[in-house]
Design a protein that fits this description.
This protein has four helices and eleven strands. Strand 9 and strand 10 form a beta hairpin.
C-alpha cells in the first residue's frame, strides 16, 4: 500500500511538472531583458509589461549566472522584489552592470511570478565572449558578440533553443549581431518558432514535440544563420570595393 502511494505521489509530481512547463508564458505579462554596452561593461535592465486591462500584483527574480568553462564553477547573483503593474503599462524592475570574461558563459534570466507564485513571464539571454580580443575590440563589440536572445515560451521551445545554441557554438559563428529566437502561439497549443537577425527572418516553422525534429530544425536554422552572415559579409565587401 505504501509503495502504491509513493508511486502515485511521484506520478502526480511528474504530471504537475509537465503541465507547468507546457504553459504559455509572456501572454499576460511580458518579461524582457535589455542589454547595452556601458563603458566596457554590460548594462542589464529587466523590464515587465502588462499586456492586459487589469492591475497585476507580481514579483520578479533577475539572475546573472556565470559558468566558468574551464572549471565548471557556477556563480549566481540574483535580485528580486515585488511590484504592481497598471493595465497596459511597462515598468523597469532592476538594473545592474557586469563584466564579461573569456573564461565565462553568462546567462541572464528574468522570471516574473503572479500572486499565486505561478510563472507568467520569462526572458533569457546567453552572453559569451569566446574570442581573444583587445580591450578596444571588447568595448566596441561585446554587446553583440555571441548573444542569442531566448524568447521561447514553452518547454519544447526551450529545448529547441538549447539545441540551436549548442550547434551555433560548434559552428564557430563569429557575428556581431544578436540572433533572436521567438516562439509565437498559433492555434490551440501549437506554437511557431521564428529565428531572426535585425528583424529579418532566417527560418520559421511549426513546432513538433519530437527531439529528432527539433535537432534537425536546429541544424537547419544554424546553417541558414551562418549563410545569412556570410551573405552579409560578402555584400559588405562588394559595396566597399566600389
Amino acid at each position: 500500500m505504501k509503495k502504491y502511494i509513493k508511486i502515485l505521489f511521484f506520478t502526480v509530481i511528474i504530471l504537475l511538472t509537465i503541465n507547468s512547463y507546457s504553459q504559455i508564458l509572456n501572454t499576460e505579462v511580458k518579461a524582457k531583458v535589455e542589454i547595452k554596452d556601458f563603458e566596457g561593461l554590460i548594462s542589464i535592465t529587466g523590464t515587465a509589461e502588462n499586456l492586459t486591462n487589469v492591475l497585476q500584483n507580481l514579483h520578479y527574480k533577475l539572475s546573472v549566472i556565470k559558468k566558468n568553462k574551464a572549471s565548471s564553477n557556477v556563480s549566481n547573483n540574483s535580485q528580486s522584489g515585488r511590484f504592481t503593474l497598471e493595465p497596459n503599462s511597462k515598468s523597469t524592475l532592476s538594473t545592474t552592470k557586469i563584466n564579461i570574461s573569456q573564461k565565462d558563459e553568462t546567462i541572464i534570466l528574468l522570471l516574473i511570478y503572479d500572486e499565486d507564485e505561478k510563472l507568467v513571464g520569462k526572458d533569457r539571454i546567453v552572453v559569451e565572449n569566446s574570442k581573444n580580443k583587445t580591450q578596444e575590440e571588447v568595448e566596441v563589440g561585446l554587446e553583440m558578440k555571441g548573444i542569442i536572445s531566448d524568447e521561447t515560451k514553452t518547454k519544447i521551445g526551450k529545448d529547441f533553443y538549447d539545441f540551436y545554441y549548442k550547434k551555433y557554438n560548434e559552428a564557430n559563428i563569429d557575428a556581431q549581431k544578436i540572433v533572436k529566437i521567438e516562439e509565437e502561439q498559433m492555434f490551440g497549443r501549437t506554437t511557431k518558432i521564428k529565428i531572426s537577425v535585425e528583424n529579418q527572418i532566417i527560418n520559421e516553422f511549426i513546432v513538433k514535440p519530437n527531439e529528432e525534429f527539433l535537432t534537425t530544425m536546429a541544424n537547419q536554422s544554424v546553417y541558414l544563420t551562418k549563410k545569412h552572415f556570410k551573405d552579409l559579409e560578402r555584400n559588405n565587401k562588394l559595396i566597399s570595393s566600389y
